[in-house]
Design a protein that fits this description.
Layout lengths: L10 E5 L3 E10 L2 E11 L5 E2 L2 E2 L2 H13 L10 E6 L5 E8 L6 H12 L7 E7 L8 E10 H13 L3 E7 H9 L9 E7 L4 E7 L2 E8 L3 H12 L3 H11 L9 H5 L1 H22 L5 E7 L8 H9 L3 E3 L6 E3 L7 H4 L3 H7 L2
Parallel strand pairs: 1-6, 3-16, 6-10, 11-14, 14-15
Antiparallel strand pairs: 1-2, 2-3, 4-5, 7-9, 8-9, 11-12, 12-13
Bound molecules: adenosine-5'-triphosphate and magnesium ion.
C-alpha cells in the first residue's frame, strides 16, 4: 500500500508557463480522497515555451504554493511533477519481432530513427504494448524529453526544498486522472485538454497514451478574440466567455458566432490528428469518443459543438472517476477540470 496513516506520501505538481497547480490524495480503502489542492498564477517572464527563465523565483513560487495549499499542512517533501507538453514527445512505434533480450537495442535503434531529437540530447522511456507471439511487429510507446528541460525542472524543484520522484509527460498524467484504474479501454479514445495557454490532443488505446499533438487554441486566445471583436476589456471578455459560452440562448448567441472560426480551426486540427493516427500509427483503428478536459472544457456547450464539428460523441471528462473530494475542501466543481494533470500526478 502506497499511503498509510491517512497522511499524504507525495503531492502532484502541474507546472506550466502561466500557472502551478497542486493536488494530493490519501488512500482510504483503495479510494483516493483529494485532501489538498492549490493554484498559483505564474507571473509573465518566469517561463518561455516550457523553459525556465527565472529559476529562483519559480522555485519560491513552488514553496508558496505548497505552504498555502488548501487542506491539512503538507509535510511531505516528495513530489511527482510534469514536463511541459510543448517540449515532450510521445509516439507509438512498431518493432520487428525480436527476442526479449534484443528489445532494448531495437528500441535504441527505433528511437534514433523515429524521434525528432538526437539521442544524446534526450531522456526517453518506453512501454511495450500487449502483443501476441505471432504478431509481425511489437507495438511500443516511446516518450522523450530534452535533457536540458528535465534537468532544469529537477533543479527548480530541489531548490524549493522538494524531492522529485518523477517528471512525467503531461498526457500520461491526464489519461491516468480520467480513466478508471485497471479497466482496459476497449476502443481508442481521444482527449482534448484545453488550457489557458495551450491545448493538446491525446489519443489513448490499450491502456496507453499512443499519440499527442499540440492544438492551435487556448483559453487566453478565445478571450482575446472576444475582447478584440466586441472591443471590451480582457476581463469583460473572460466573463462573457464564462457566462454565455456557446449557448445560442445566451448573449443572443453572440459568443458562438464570434468564435466560429476558432472552433472550425480546432475541429479541423482534431480531425487531422485523428486521421494521422488512424492512417499512420494504429491503422484503421476506430476512435470511440472525444473527452474534454482542462479549464476550457467548462465552456458551455463546447462538447455539443465539437461533437457536431468533429463527428464523434463528445463528453466533458469525469475527473471524479478515481477520486472523491474531501468534505473539508470547498473545491468548486468547475475547478476540478483545471486540476486534471495535478490529480493524475497525485494518484500515481
Ligand atoms: N466556464 C468556462 N468557460 C470557458 N472557459 C473557461 C471556463 N472556466 C475556465 N475556463 C478557461 O480555462 C482556462 C484555464 O484552464 P486550465 O486551468 O486547464 O489552464 P492551465 O492548466 O493553467 O493552462 P495551460 O495548461 O495552458 O498552461 C482559462 O483560459 C479559462 O478562461
Ligand atoms: Mg494545463
Amino acid at each position: 500500500m502506497i499511503f498509510s496513516n491517512k497522511k499524504i506520501s507525495y503531492f502532484g505538481l502541474d507546472i506550466s508557463d502561466l500557472s502551478f497547480k497542486l493536488a494530493a490524495v490519501i488512500n482510504k480503502k483503495n479510494i483516493f480522497e483529494l485532501v489538498n489542492y492549490n493554484k498559483a498564477n505564474v507571473p509573465p517572464g518566469y517561463f518561455e515555451n516550457g523553459k525556465i527563465i527565472k529559476l529562483q523565483e519559480s522555485s519560491n513560487l513552488i514553496k508558496e504554493l505548497v505552504n498555502s495549499a488548501y487542506g491539512p499542512k503538507i509535510k511531505t517533501k516528495f513530489v511527482h511533477a510534469c514536463l511541459p507538453e510543448k517540449q515532450t514527445f510521445i509516439k507509438i512505434i512498431y518493432l520487428p519481432h525480436v527476442s526479449e533480450t534484443e528489445i532494448p537495442s531495437a528500441i535504441d535503434w527505433a528511437a534514433e530513427h523515429h524521434l525528432p531529437f538526437s539521442l544524446d540530447e534526450i531522456y526517453f522511456d518506453y512501454h511495450i504494448l500487449e502483443n501476441k507471439k505471432n504478431d509481425k511487429e511489437i507495438p511500443v510507446v516511446i516518450g522523450a524529453a530534452p535533457k536540458e528541460i528535465v534537468d532544469d525542472y529537477t533543479k527548480m524543484i530541489k531548490l524549493a526544498g522538494f524531492v522529485p520522484l518523477s517528471l512525467e509527460i503531461e498526457a500520461l498524467a491526464i489519461a491516468r486522472a480520467i480513466y478508471p484504474k485497471e479497466k482496459m479501454l476497449e476502443q481508442a479514445q481521444a482527449i482534448v485538454d484545453l488550457g489557458a495557454n495551450r491545448s493538446s490532443l491525446i489519443i489513448c488505446a490499450q491502456d496507453a497514451v499512443q499519440f499527442s499533438l499540440s492544438l492551435p487554441i487556448s483559453g487566453n486566445k478565445i478571450t482575446q478574440v472576444i475582447s478584440q471583436t466586441l472591443k471590451i476589456s480582457p476581463r469583460q471578455a473572460e466573463a462573457a466567455k464564462i457566462i454565455c459560452g456557446l449557448d445560442e440562448k445566451k448573449c443572443k448567441g453572440g459568443i458562438k458566432i464570434i468564435l466560429e472560426k476558432e472552433l472550425d480551426n480546432l475541429a479541423n486540427e482534431i480531425n487531422t490528428g485523428l486521421k494521422y493516427y488512424q492512417e499512420n500509427i494504429a491503422k484503421s483503428t476506430t476512435i470511440e469518443k472525444l473527452l474534454l478536459t482542462g479549464g476550457g472544457a467548462n465552456m458551455i456547450q463546447l462538447n455539443k459543438i465539437l461533437s457536431e464539428k468533429v463527428g464523434l460523441p463528445t463528453e466533458v471528462a469525469d475527473i471524479s472517476t478515481n477520486i472523491k473530494i474531501s468534505k473539508n475542501l470547498n473545491l468548486p466543481t468547475e475547478q476540478l477540470l483545471s486540476l486534471t494533470t495535478a490529480i493524475g500526478l497525485a494518484i500515481k
